[in-house]
Design brief:
The protein is α/β, with parallel strands linked by helices. It has 8 helices and 7 strands, in the order βαβαβαβαβαβαααβ. The chain binds nicotinamide-adenine-dinucleotide (NAD). The site of nicotinamide-adenine-dinucleotide has 30 residues, from α1, α4 and α6.
């Protein structure tokens, strides 16, 4: 093994869903800084455009592709557009996800909220893989990173039942994809963030009581910053993780290791 920079992504294309905000935007900046041609995919045109501008201002390459990840035709078209703009697909970061109000206990959660969350968080990842995998095989293989969450492996008494179920599905699906495609040069890992300071959580954690309730379970005693997730994405996307596949990749400040946390 040489000591060439193994995190270099020169010549590779990375499709990132939900790249208009939070972890997705930060990952777009990080992967582009390592040389990837980033396909910024979001349903929101304005925020996607801002990510593209930020990547370009930093000297990187990015293109915007609008798609709702839960829509079959739009995801097929997004992958086709990614390949036609950049010439291939090597990294697929299925990151788009929602955490809507109304998702609570199994008894209270309305069916339309359940369907919406499962459609975006679980079907969206499935569709990304459905169309992304053939494009990656055509490109000689690559790395899939699917965003689950620490709630895929931990239960909370304050449930968000559709979100938790969707993330458990992402975790199980990712393992199976990892096993099925390992010998064809595709790695797949489930990124499991702990709570991250992004717009997704901001509204929820604006309430100091809710925030304190969450922080008490985190050994590090703080939320993650989006760039701390982006660095994990870079590792999983690049050859630095060449023997890593099928993992439940925790980036959670120690939450899933804790029984009692320090005061
Ligand atoms: P965010 O809300 O900041 O950004 C999500 C992005 O996804 C937005 O740009 C939004 O427009 C886009 N999006 C939403 N629905 C979409 C759809 N149907 N099609 C296309 N794009 C869509 O969120 P974030 O905090 O960066 O979260 C990113 C991922 O990380 C999500 O899957 C989330 O569940 C997961 N996650 C977040 C946390 C956290 O604490 N923030 C913790 C664990 C897991």
């Amino acid at each position: 093994m040489g000591h060439a920079k193994e995190t270099s992504l020169d010549g590779r294309t990375a499709l990132i869903t939900g790249a208009g905000s939070g972890i997705g935007r930060e990952a777009a900046l990080t992967l582009a800084a390592e040389g990837a041609h980033v396909v910024v995919c979001d349903r929101d045109e304005e925020s996607g455009r801002v990510t593209v501008e930020q990547v370009e201002t930093a000297g990187g390459k990015a293109v915007l592709v609008l798609a709702d990840v839960s829509d079959d035709d739009q995801m097929r078209a997004a992958v086709e557009a990614a390949v036609s703009h950049t010439g291939g697909l090597h990294i697929l970061f299925n990151n788009a996800g929602i955490f809507p109000e109304g998702d609570g206990s199994p008894v209270e959660t309305p069916l339309d909220i359940w369907d919406w969350v499962i459609d975006v968080n679980l079907k969206g990842v499935f569709l990304g893989c459905k169309y992304g995998i053939p494009a990656m095989l055509d490109s000689g293989g690559g790395s899939i990173i699917n965003t689950a969450s620490f709630v895929a492996v931990m239960g909370a008494a304050t449930s968000q039942i559709a979100y938790t179920a969707s993330k458990g599905g992402v975790l199980a699906m990712t393992r199976e994809i990892a096993v099925e495609y390992a010998r064809q040069g595709i790695r797949a890992n489930a990124l499991c963030p702990g709570p991250v300071r992004t717009p997704l959580l901001e509204e929820f954690l604006a309430d100091p009581v809710q925030k304190a309730k969450r922080l008490v379970h985190i050994p590090m005693g703080r939320l993650a910053e989006a760039d701390e997730l982006a660095k994990a994405v870079l590792y999983l996307a690049s050859d630095a993780s060449s023997y890593v596949t099928g993992t439940t990749f925790m980036v959670d400040g120690g939450i899933t290791s804790a029984y009692v946390t320090p005061e």
